[in-house]
Amino acid sequence: MKKQQSIQRRLHSSYLFIVGLLSVPTVLLLLFLLPTTARYHQHINYISDARAIVDLSGARLESELWDIVAGNQAYQAGAQEHIMDEISTRLDRLLYETEIYESRQQVEAAVRLVDTMSSYMEELGAPSYRHSVMYSNEQILREIRSVSDLLHTVLQEYIFIEIGVISDINGQLRSCSIAITFLAALLLLVIIMAAVDSCRSVQRDIREPIGRLEAMSVQLAAGNLEARAAPPSVSELDTLTRSLNTMADQLDELIENRIADQRSLRKAEMRTLQAQITPHFIYNTLDTIVWLAQQKENQAVVDITMALTQFFRISLSGGSDYITVGQELSHVESYLKIQAVRYESIMQYRIDVEASLAPCPILKLLLQPLVENAIYHGIKKKRGRGLITVTGRRNPDQTMTFSVSDTGIGMPAERLAEVRAALTSDAGPQAGFGLYNVNQRIRLYYNNSGLDIQSAYRSGTTISFTIPCRMD
Fold first, then answer.
1. Which EC number(s) are documented for this chain (predicted)?
2. Of 112, 291, 117, whose CA–CA distance to 206 is shortest?
């Protein structure tokens, strides 16, 4: 047997798969861009240092030295040594950080030239030269200028090499961007194909078990109580399938175990009448679920399926005839949620029942047929949107009164009289299976007058009944 899988888990796995694939290009881009961009900026800084050295060793240094040679300032008062220190600092950094062989050769040559310039400057600042004639000082200045020109040539060659390195890095960035763009397009194609396949798989796994449940409900409606549905492949439909199979088992058991006396016989007849109504509701609901699945409304399919599961869980209620008011209201709310999907454009509902009534026992399936009657004979027959209101109140005499009101088409006085008469007639449920069933069961189990119906044409209908808060 195929292992059951959760639709929600499969969708979650698909989302993780898609997010994972989408993150691959971003991760690769970051892994490549971060170090490559760092290298790019590093070489830009190398060029900036080289240009700064050219500027320092050019006009700025020459201006300081000329003032000394011309006698405008003393050697000690000049900034030439500070300039040379800054040049040496920048060259030392370039020598330490430069890894490319050709660039390193140029830096080493520049270091040697700077050392030569420093030697000439030491001669210029030596005591024996401080009082020399200006001609000798100018000769030293020319030598320094000559070395400075060589330094500029070496540094220009260094800058040219570094520009080539930057060009290579830029090419790598461009190639990487193209490759990652191609990879992203390929992954997008894979994601689209995976999403389409996942969508088809989910639709198939929903449609097939629902089709089996629909076929089972049709067979049950036709009277074949041996019909059973196979376990579904998705876990969300497992509870619903088991509930339907259990319902079929219980229906079969009810028929085989009829009680002999008249009262028990009439109770069994009411259960059978109730069973005749249920398969049609199942068929319509499953048809709605199939339609939602075809529209790819997966979350709506899950919501209405869970509501239908809750509906049948309370309908079965361990075979007991009585449940609590809270369970009956939950049953009605599940039914209304299902019908709200089918009749969203024409129906609204409101449930207003005192909280203190929740633990009180009540004969099950009294309110749902009244709500169903309000939908099909009230709301659907009137133009525009209608409101269904379910109310429940505790009375001073330890009874509780429930009513189901609608703002539907209502009934003329003649039709209202016919419906009231049909409820108490022995000829059969001419007022409709739902109302007749509820009225007979209330009279049978609670020994009272049954349903009270009030209606006005084009104003709506209110159906109410009163039962004890405690069973006798």
1. 2.7.13.3
2. 291
Mean pLDDT, the chain, integer:
79
Element spanning 324, H or E: strand 322-324
Question: Domain for residue 239, yes or no?
Answer: no
Question: pTM of the entire structure?
Answer: 0.44
Over pLDDT 90: what percentage of the chain? 18
Q: Residue 12 belongs to a domain with what CATH number? A: 1.20.120
DSSP characters for 390-433? EEEEE-TTSEEEEEEEE-S----HHHHHHHHHHHT-TT--TT-H
Domain boundary among 177, 193, 209: 193
Domain boundary residue, one of 193, 228, 248: 193
Domain of residue 157 covers: 7-193
pLDDT, tens digit (0-9, with 9 covering 90-100), for 26-53: 777 777 777 777 788 888 888 888 888 8
Whether residue 130 lies inside any domain: the answer is yes
Tally the domains of the chain: 2
Tell me if 4 sits within 8 A of 242, measured CB to CB: no
- 329-375, pLDDT tens digit by residue? 998 998 898 888 888 888 999 999 999 999 999 988 899 889 989 99
Distance CA 351, CA 182 (A): 58
Query: Rounded to the nearest 10 degrees, what angle do helices 325-342 and 262-294 cross at?
Result: 40
Q: CA torsion sign, 322 to 325 to 327 to 331?
A: positive
| d(C-alpha 430, C-alpha 217), whole Å | 25
Looking up residue 446, the CATH number of its domain turns out to be: 3.30.565.10
